[in-house]
Design brief:
This protein is of the alpha/beta class. It is built from 7 helices and 10 strands. It has a domain of 67 residues. The chain has a 6-stranded mixed β-sheet with strand order 6-7-8-3-9-10, with helices on both faces. Strands 2-1-4-5 form a 4-stranded antiparallel β-sheet, with helices on one face. Helix 4 packs across helix 5. The protein is globular, with a radius of gyration of 17 Å. It starts with a strand and ends in a 7-residue tail after the last strand. The relative contact order is 0.19. Keywords: ATP-binding, Cell cycle, Cell division, Cell membrane, Membrane, Nucleotide-binding.
Length: 225
C-alpha cells in the first residue's frame, strides 16, 4: 500500500533520510521509533506530500505521491488521517463542531454531518462531551476529539504522530485502545512514539530509525534503542 523506494532527503546539506526502503501493507499496525532527529517526522511529511524527496520515490498504492498534481493534493490527503501530540483543535468550536468542520471542509452534506459525527464521538467514548469546548476537556479527551476528527472521513491510513506524548499513563492506555479499535475496523495505522511501554505492549511491527536510516524492522518487535 505504502512504499518508500530508496528515499533520501537533505536540508541544506544535512541528510535527514538516507537510502530508506520500506513497505507498509494495507491493514497493518506499524510503530516507528527512534530518537529525536532520527527521521521519523521527515518520513511522515514525505508521505503526506508536505516535502519532496531529494532522491527516490514514495508510493501510495500505485501512485507516485510526488507526481500528484497540486490541485489533487487535498483529495489525496483526505485518504490519510493525522493526529498529533498537540491536538490542534479549534478553540472556539465544540468537540462536535471540530469534527463537523473537518467534514464540511471535505464537502460533506449537513445530513452526513448529523449522521456521522455522533457515531464517531461514540466510537471514541465522548458522546457525553459533544458540546464541550476544548478548554473544558482533559488532555486525553482533547486527543480523542482529534482522533475522531482524523477518522471522520474514513481514511485508508491513520498517522498518529506521538499522540500520547502529553498524556498520563491512564489516558495513554485509553488512546492506544482506541487506535487498536480503529485498526480492527480495517484502517492502516502508523504510530510514532517514544513510549517504550506502548511499543512493548502492542507486540506488533516496529521500525527503528537512527540517523535517517532504518536500522531495524521487526514484525513483532520491542522498543530497542
Amino acid at each position: 500500500m505504502i512504499y518508500f523506494d530508496n528515499v533520501a532527503k537533505s536540508y541544506g546539506g544535512h541528510a535527514a533520510l538516507t537510502d530508506v526502503t520500506l513497505g507498509i501493507q494495507s491493514g497493518e499496525f506499524v510503530s516507528i521509533v527512534g530518537k529525536s532527529g532520527a527521521g521519523k517526522t521527515t518520513l511522515l511529511r514525505l508521505l503526506l506530500a508536505e516535502e519532496h524527496p531529494t532522491s527516490g520515490n514514495v508510493f501510495f498504492e500505485s501512485t507516485n505521491v510526488h507526481r500528484i498534481k497540486q490541485s489533487f493534493i487535498p483529495e489525496y490527503r483526505r485518504r490519510i488521517g493525522t493526529v498529533f501530540q498537540d491536538f490542534r483543535l479549534l478553540p472556539n468550536k465544540t468537540a462536535y463542531e471540530n469534527i463537523a468542520f473537518a467534514m464540511e471542509a471535505a464537502g460533506r452534506t449537513d445530513e452526513e454531518v448529523r449522521s456521522d459525527v455522533p457515531q464517531v464521538l461514540d466510537l471514541v467514548d465522548l458522546a457525553s462531551k459533544a458540546l464541550h469546548f476544548p478548554h473544558e476537556l482533559s488532555g486525553g479527551e482533547k486527543q480523542r476529539v482529534a482522533i475522531a476528527r482524523a477518522i471522520i472521513s474514513q481514511p485508508d491510513v491513520l498517522i498518529a504522530d506521538e499522540p500520547t506524548g502529553n498524556l498520563d499513563p491512564t489516558n495513554t492506555y485509553d488512546i492506544i485502545q482506541i487506535l487498536k479499535k480503529i485498526h480492527d475496523m480495517g484502517t492502516t495505522v502508523i504510530l510514532t512514539t517514544h513510549n517504550k511501554g506502548v511499543i512493548d505492549s502492542l507486540k506488533r511491527r516496529v521500525i527503528t530509525m537512527e540517523g535517517g536510516k532504518v536500522v531495524r524492522d521487526d514484525p513483532e518487535g520491542k522498543y530497542i534503542l
